[in-house]
Design a protein that fits this description.
Blueprint (H helix, E strand, L loop, with lengths): L9 E5 L8 E4 L4 E6 L15 E3 L4 E6 L4 E4 L1 H8 L6 E10 L11 E8 L4 E7 L5 E7 L3 E6 L12 E8 L4 E6 L2 E7 L14 E3 L7 E2 L3 E2 L4 E10 L5 H15 L9 H4 L22 E12 L2 E9 L9 E7 L5 E8 L10 E9 L5 E8 L7 E8 L12 E3 L5 E2 L11 E8 L2 E10 L3 E9 L6 E8 L11 E12 L5 E10 L8 E8 L4 E4 L5 E2 L8 E7 L6 E7 L5 H7 L1 E2 L1 E2 L3 E5 L5 E5 L7 E12 H8 L6 E10 L4 E8 L7 E6 L4 E5 L14 E5 L7 E8 L2 E6 L3 E6 L9 E6 L3 E11 L4
Parallel strand pairs: 19-39
Antiparallel strand pairs: 1-18, 2-3, 3-6, 4-5, 5-18, 6-15, 7-12, 7-18, 8-9, 8-15, 9-10, 10-11, 12-13, 13-14, 16-17, 19-20, 20-21, 21-22, 23-24, 24-25, 25-26, 25-27, 28-29, 29-30, 30-31, 32-33, 33-34, 34-35, 34-36, 37-38, 38-40, 38-41, 41-42, 43-53, 44-49, 44-53, 45-46, 45-52, 46-47, 47-48, ...
């Protein structure tokens, strides 16, 4: 075997200096290994190469955490190495982790491995929860052996670390080195040899025996940048390892440990911008998974909005808090993850939903659901404070968690084990919190707490619970309670809006609301009517509510998640799952009903005005609409029915009508509906059927305010109800519009604008 690098005992070396392309050169054999990456072949966007980044020496390869890996097949390994058991093995590599795997089933996220633990064969170098790392291998004497990094020597995120693992069978030891120094060792039988993992590929960035999630996703995959991976068939000495580390620092970095600029390692939204189904003016993570946006807050001229996020891939797994910031609630900037699970007793297993408010000094604080599976229950209410103003960064990038949970559920307080999503607000008398839960045998409930100092909380009892017998769709548990003031009604009574999201057996997972009165003394809610209402009458696409009172304008604004309605297979292929809905202004109408409208700032996204017409017949309007094409549009439409009893608009329509989505009003049933039976011919997409709900218009014309944003359709009808749905046409020419009715009608007005991306 040739030794092209001139290093004794070097078996394999990937320098990752290509900087582009879909293969990596193994330097010793001078053969290339294909890089697996989800967008190498892309169905919904332009194919893209794996992501290359600045390395320690030259370039490095960025592993996305769920699809990027390299395989060196068995045949290549056997040809180059032979089958003799090794008495020594060393691995050296520079690593810059972006995220940590949760450690499902106790397995390591592999940096490099060729192993079969069940058979006690081969080797595995990888990371575990919260940055711990380990070298493991199967020996002919003693079976499977492991050595682990000690406390304090975890691999930090967003930083370069030089990692070495050494097996020396002659001396009977395996060792770990971090940044040139030995940090751990473990004895093995003297004279041991490593048992080869026969018939197993060598994998970089992917565990040979990874767990499967949702039947599609491989867990235990490396997330971050790798550079200069070397594997030796001898035991490197501590002096050699230290010298290699110093050589890089001294020759390239003036003796200082190299840093990783955030822009080099962050999730990059650029490869997804051309995805023909991914919304472009709705807030979304750069890539991968999100569920509900939450904790909106305004501070020093900027709006902050956080979101539930899995940075490892487009699937629900270990949840962090993603973070956006905006000056206008429309154009958002991506910021680093605000809160992540850490190796502590507070929230090692997830940072789940919550809210934001201000402390006694007027500084923002975050209340979140702390996930700790070693506790019972595994959910408690916790607090994080911004490091601003000490750090001088008004973007509020850095947050420090209060070490202890603030509210721990006790038996007898709500449905034990379901206790999450604190909604906290402050007034002159102190702080108040609602927590989503239920009452055993009685259904979902929001539980009320009060505090004078924001740290010590007193339980006040159920804030509100509904009659599950009368309204079984409200389910046994409520999540994400939100309370917003609506002002006074015509009788001068103060009104509030209570939003909840039911879950559990029999629950309709939608956003339900009541208008009613806040009893501040008892800290309870008295609804004007017992039956809840829906804001949105779509099907599962408008969920996960959060809300705020805008200090600039006094508006009450709510935020939601727009779920994707796709299979795990399609989310894997696409590299993203879900986005936020548009911010909505809610208010008390003169007639006592809830008004709902998209915020006015969205007008800043309008591009060219494509159409403006008044008082046209159905045929005249459709003649004009033949020239309008688009999947990023804003439409304002008023229809006066004549003889038509069902009427509306067809969206995302192909010229032949083979694919189309019909949004319409049924005046006989007083229902706003969407018909998706012809939305797509794609065999994998799930959107279909007819969905909708009640909308009482009486003698009013139908006034629709529509937003099309690729797969997103949001319709706001007469400022009373919304209908949010998803469309994934298979044909690229599904871009047309057509007014529709089952009889005569008049298009009183219609305006259409092109819309611009916020990214």
């Amino acid at each position: 075997m040739s030794q092209l690098t001139g290093e004794q005992g070097l078996m394999m070396h990937w320098a990752f200096d290509e900087g582009a392309g879909r293969s990596a050169l193994e330097q010793v054999s001078q053969s290339r290994d294909e890089i697996q990456y989800v967008l190498n072949q892309a169905e919904f966007t332009e194919p893209a190469d794996p992501q290359w980044r600045q390395g320690v020496e030259g370039s490095g390869l960025l592993f996305d955490g769920y699809s990027t890996s390299i395989a060196r097949p068995v045949c290549e390994l056997d040809r180059n190495q032979g089958a003799e058991p090794l008495s020594a093995l060393s691995i050296g590599v520079w690593v810059a982790p972006r995220s940590y795997d949760w450690g499902y089933e106790g397995k390591l996220a592999a940096i490099v491995n060729r192993h079969n633990r069940e058979c006690e064969q081969g080797y595995l170098l990888g990371m575990f929860r919260h940055g711990r790392w380990s070298f493991q291998l199967g020996l002919d004497q003693g079976g499977w052996k492991e050595v682990w990094s000690p406390d304090g020597d975890e691999l930090p995120k967003h930083e370069w670390s030089y990692v070495n693992a050494v097996f020396n069978g002659e001396q009977g030891v395996i060792k770990l080195y971090l940044n040139g120094r030995e940090i751990a060792s473990s004895e093995v039988p003297v004279g041991s040899r490593m048992v080869e993992a026969v018939g197993t590929d060598l994998l970089i960035g992917k565990n040979n025996h990874s767990s499967r999630w949702a039947g599609v996703f491989h867990l235990q995959m490396f997330s971050g940048i790798l550079d200069e991976l070397k594997i030796y068939q001898r035991a490197l000495s501590g002096e050699e390892i230290a010298a290699s580390y110093r050589q890089v620092l001294d020759s390239l970095y003036g003796g200082i440990k190299p840093q990783v600029p955030y822009d080099e390692i962050k999730l990059d939204r650029a490869p997804l911008l051309l995805d023909r189904h991914r919304p472009q003016y709705h807030a979304s993570p750069p890539a991968h998974w999100m569920n509900e946006p939450h904790a909106p807050i305004y501070f020093e001229g900027q709006y902050h909005l956080f979101y539930q996020h899995n940075p490892l891939g487009p699937f629900f797994y270990q949840i962090h808090w993603g973070h956006w910031v905006s000056e206008d609630l429309v154009h958002w900037r991506d910021l680093p993850v605000a809160l992540a699970p850490e190796r502590d007793q507070l929230a090692p297993d997830g940072i789940w939903s919550g809210s934001a408010t201000y402390d006694a000094e007027g500084l923002p604080v975050l209340f979140f659901t702390a996930g700790n599976d070693s506790a019972s229950p595994n959910q408690s209410v916790a607090l994080a404070r911004s490091t601003y103003p000490a750090d001088g960064n008004p973007d509020l990038v850095l947050w420090v968690k209060h070490r202890e949970p603030l509210i721990v559920q006790q038996k007898g307080i709500g449905a034990f084990g379901d206790f999450r999503d604190p909604f906290v607000w402050k007034d002159d008398d102190g702080w108040y919190a609602l927590v989503g839960s239920g009452i055993e045998g009685e259904g979902g409930a929001a539980l009320a707490f009060v505090s004078k100092d924001m740290l010590n909380w007193t339980y006040k009892g159920p804030f509100f619970q509904a009659d599950l017998q009368r309204f079984p769709y409200l389910g046994p548990i409520w999540e994400l309670p939100v309370l917003l003031p609506l002002g006074t009604d015509k009788q001068g009574e103060n009104k509030h809006l209570l939003l909840v999201s039911p879950v559990g057996d029999g629950a309709d997972v939608e956003v339900f609301y009541w208008i009613g009165r806040l009893d501040k003394e008892e800290l309870s809610f008295i609804p004007d009517q017992e039956e809840p209402e829906l804001i949105d009458v779509g099907d599962f696409h408008f969920t996960g509510p959060s809300g705020m009172v805008d200090p600039k304008t006094g508006r009450k604004i709510i935020f939601t998640i727009a779920q994707g309605d796709r299979t795990s297979e399609l989310e894997y292929q696409s590299g993203w799952a879900h986005n936020a809905g548009l911010p909505l202004s809610v208010y008390l109408r003169d007639d006592g009903r809830l008004g709902i409208e998209p915020i006015q700032e969205l007008q800043s996204l309008r591009g060219e005005k494509r159409l403006s017409l008044r008082d046209n017949s159905l045929a005249e309007a459709n003649e004009r609409l033949q020239e309008i094409q688009g999947d990023m549009l804003e439409i304002q439409l008023e229809i006066e029915p004549d003889s038509a009893q069902q009427f509306g608009i067809k969206l995302r329509r192909t010229p032949d009508g083979e694919e189309e989505t019909l949004l319409y009003y049924d005046s006989k049933q007083s229902m706003l509906l969407v018909d998706r039976t012809k939305t797509t011919l794609h065999p994998g997409e799930r959107c279909g059927g007819i969905q909708g709900g009640k909308l009482e218009l009486a003698s009013e014309n139908l006034r629709l305010h529509l937003y099309l944003d690729r797969s997103m359709v949001e319709a706001y009808a007469n400022s009373l109800k919304s209908l949010t749905t998803r469309v994934y046409p298979s044909r690229r020419d599904a871009l047309g519009l057509e007014i529709w009715g089952d009889g005569e009608l008049v298009v009183r007005s219609m305006e259409v604008w092109e819309m611009k991306s916020i990214w």
